[in-house]
Amino acid sequence: MLFPADLKPLPLYTFMAYNRSMFICTIQKIRCIYTFIFILFIIKCAESVSNFRLQVMQGSNLEEKKSLKLRDKRDADVQFAENYLVNYGYVPPDSLKSTGGAAELHSRSKALVEMQNFLGLTPTGTFDDATLEMMKKPRCANPDKMSVESNLRKKRYVTVGSPWQKNLITYSINNFTPKLGQKLTHEAIDDAFRVWGSFVPLQFKKVDASQNPDIVTFFAEGFHNDNTNFDGVGGYLAHAFYPGSGIGGDTHFDGAEPWTLHQGPNRGNDLFLVAVHELGHALGLQHSPDVKAIMAPVYKYHDTENFQLPQDDILGIQSLYGARYSGTEKPIVPTTSKPTPAITTTTTRRSPSRPRKPTRRPTSRATIKPTTEPPEPVLCDLTSYDAISFLRKELYIFKGKYMWRQKRGRNTFNGPYKITSFWPQLKNGVDAVYENPTSNKIVFFKDHLFWEFRGTQLQPKSPRHVRYIGMQNGKVDAAVWWQRNGKTYFFKGDYYWRYGVGKVEGDYPKPIDVWRGVPPNVDASFSGVDGSHNFTYFVKGTKFWTFNNWDIQVVKGALSFKKHWLHCGMIETEEKTFETAPPSAPVPAIIVVCMVAVALLAAAIAYVVWRRRRYSAKQATKTRIVETPGVPYQAGYGVPVPGREGEKTMCVTAAQQKMRWFRFSLQGRV
């Protein structure tokens, strides 16, 4: 066989160097792969160790936080209990100082013992769990402190002041709770009057609120123009004033409570039972230390199906007014008819041994409301609003004859409520409203009239025509009191007015363009509360604009009022606490990762040893085969280069050498 002149047989040592270079190249690749795996293993181990240390630190912090929370909770409970003692008359407001001295501890312990005895608890003199549990139960807002200590030894019931000095007592029910409806609200309160009327020679007549009744009853929330603000669900249920002129005898119920009627225990607060208790105050009874009495301060369910006034309460009310019947008189059997919510006749009388059984509440709420009443609106379904304002630091939204309110520190609105349940004179809704904190007045606008209130009490000469303050005929779209200058601004269409002292200022109206960025024909406007008067908010439809009172321009415009203020369609999620957060890496994971990494490293070493032994076996075979002459040689490709650098060169050109070997074979065959 003839070979080209420039090709010579490849020596044996050259071929061995080539194969050795190929092996070295493979080993280098394996080294790179397993070095990378080993680096990942080190990183993972370091991360696991770091997570383990973090978990240990979190565990210690968790214990510290738990102890701090327990201590804070205990401090909060102690503060709550001390306020309880002050609010319900066991200690004067300034008797419990924050010094922690012996005198203060003795005063607190003595007051606690007195309270525990009064509520039927074990007199430990400490804020134990049973005492705190009793303090947190719903109850009457009237104080418990007795005026005469000797009463506790002689009798359980307690009287206060003087009773009514007449036999005919008139009362009115100014509004009702939407949870029961008008019919059942009147029914519960009427039955409560009948209970007391069965045992004393008094007659009770329901009249209209305009007829100056002796006892006025109504539902309210939060501030309601007296010294005791309601606190929402739980806590205070109601309170009443003792007999007297003016506000004497008036009875107020917290409208936020879950009122029910004849639904059994653990089903809200029965309005009939609470009304019987509060009317006992209105007739002159104070709280009784007898836990079975209806005049006990803490709410307790009694069987309303066969309700009988406890003997302690009978003795108490008859000590003030005497007994209705003598032993020989026959009691008048009560009629089965119920008084209507309007002005009705006097209360019927019944046997003192078995008062009239109240009618069970219908199971379907559809029977409570008249079919002619339209359904109550849903706040998030509204497309516009009549008026919006902060009143007594609570945000109110008015639409039609209904309103909603948002209490301080909460994101949800309560309602809807009838506007007349708070302000009976506003029977046709409102167009605009604002509160002037300097004069403590709330002003409502409707059509061409305006009303002024202090809380819920209508001021003299209201309502009046808007011409009285210098406005033109027609309604006001929006009104807002501006803290920056203490003025009130009225908005209507494309213009606005500024109201100073008694009258609108003479150089008004002016175009609304002065309020840069505020759109015309706004539906409502309101300012912030608690020092956040730097912004005024204008609402039109379901959009609102944020106006900076100092830059005199809108800084945020056309945002969704439903999203940012009403939180409609948004799911409220609570922040995950530290205790519920999962650990970043569990401890067993560290051991598993280390075992897997060691197994991979052992497999890599075994694979390298196996490859090396296999190559040694093949190398001997290749050496014997290449000893025959005629192996092609190409200068620059088959020459062995000493040192690692030459081996790398052979590794780089291995593919080209294989190709030339293949070409030489073809040439030889040809």
Major sheet strand order: 3-2-4-6-5
How would you name the oligomeric state of the polypeptide chains in this document?
single chain
Shape call: flat
Strand content: 15-25%
Q: Give the C-alpha Rg.
A: 44 Å
Q: Predict the CATH topology of the largest domain.
A: Collagenase (Catalytic Domain)
Number of DSSP E strands: 26
Largest sheet: 5 strands, mixed
Task: Explain the overall architecture.
The protein is an alpha+beta fold. The protein has four domains: 127 residues, no CATH class; 66 residues, no CATH class; 209 residues, Collagenase (Catalytic Domain) (3-Layer(aba) Sandwich), CATH 3.40.390.10; 186 residues, Hemopexin-like domain (Hemopexin, 4 Propeller), CATH 2.110.10. The strands form seven sheets. A five-stranded mixed sheet has the order 3-2-4-6-5, covered by helices on one side. Strands 14, 15, 16, 17 and 18 form a five-stranded antiparallel sheet that branches. Strands 10-11-12-13 form a four-stranded antiparallel sheet, with no helix packed on it. β20 and β21 form a beta hairpin. The radius of gyration is 44 Å and the shape is flat. The N terminus is likely disordered.
